[in-house]
Every structure is written in C-alpha cells, then in structure tokens.
Amino acid sequence: MKKLITLVAVVATVSAMARPGNESKFDIQLGGKTYQGRNSLSLEHLFKKNHPRLNFNNWDFKRVVLHAKSKKGRAQANLTIGRFQSRSEFIDGNNYDFHNQGYFHQIPFEAPRGDRGAWKIHLDGAVKVKKITLVGSKIRNTRPTPPTRPTRPTRPTPPTRPTRPTPPTRPTRPQITVECGYVLETLWGKDIKKFRSSATGPASSDVRSRACIEAKNRCLHLSNEIPLTKCSKL
Hints:
The chain contains 3 helices and 13 strands. By secondary structure, it is mostly beta strands.
C-alpha cells in the first residue's frame, strides 16, 4: 500500500529564474524525510507546495535529480511520467551515514520529451530524501496573437415609410325583408294550402323575386302530387 506523502519542510529555492528558453532549476526541499517500504512521491503536488505561484505544466522539465541515501545501500528509485517508466536506480548508503546529516547521493533521471501524465518518483526501501531538483525551461507560447479585426461601420437606419391612409368605409346599403306567398287551390277555386317565404337583402336587389321563387317552388312540389290543382300568387 502506497503511503500518502506529507511535506515536512517547505523551503522554496529557485536556483535560476531564467528567461523562457534558458535552463532553470527548482528545488523541492524535503528536509531529510525518512521513507520506509514502497512510497510514491508526486512531483506535481510537491512542486505546487514549494512554488505556489508557478504552474507545473508551463515548464518543460528535462531532468529530475533525487538527493537521497539508503540505510543499507539496497534501496531503489525510479521515475514514471504517464506510461513512461525509467529503469530502477540503486540509492547508495549505509547504516552509519543514514543517521548523519550529510552524505546524500544524487540519482539523476532523464525525462523523455512529449510524454504526458503524472510525474512520480517511486521509492523501495529505507530512504532519506533531502530534496528533489527539477531542471528544465519554460515553454514558449508559439501561438501568435491574432490581429484585431477592424469594426465594420454601422449601417444607418433607413427612414420609416409613411403609412398609407385607410380608405373610407363604403356606406352600407339598407337591408329589407320581403315576404311572398302562393296558394295551392283546385281548378274550381277551392284553397288547399298556402305557402309563404321571406328573403332579406338590399332594397335594389332581387330580394322580392327570391322570396316568391321559394314559395312558388314549394307550392308546385305539392301540386305535382295532387291532381286537378294549381298554384296562384297571393
């Protein structure tokens, strides 16, 4: 089980804060912290703790140097970046030097270019770590700033067309209702049934003719069924 990394001493030391393209060194101080068994050190996490104003992803790191010593000289360390994994390197040391302040050894790791993923140093054994040094240069911003396009002039608002006047309303013709009647009678003049119809329309139209036609048609319809009858206008 990998142990969580606890930062014992946060001492940010920037050896060379150079211009973009020049090589810079960043020290992650761990103050001789002791690790037992298998442990993983997240370089991105430790870098952020030591250099909170810098962005880890804005730097192209080419080398990682581990300053450490082991208790029996058999401990190992390796660097992983995403899927990349370096070979394991032995960490020199002995029991006497392990408990003293000095005698830290440098274990360098070359970082491949273009690899993406988590940067970690994996330790296996009893190890004391003084610091981790990251060496690299700042990534240049290769994308040029696009020129600002000139603002197009605003087209003037066309003048509003005058509204056409509403034509005057034509006067409505007066409406009239006309009634017309027919009587069904025998040939000798005896009334059988009277039919009346009405129609509505303008006074100058054939409203009277329409009323009479309807009444006459109803009368003739019944006259066709009764012999010896006729229709007469009332």
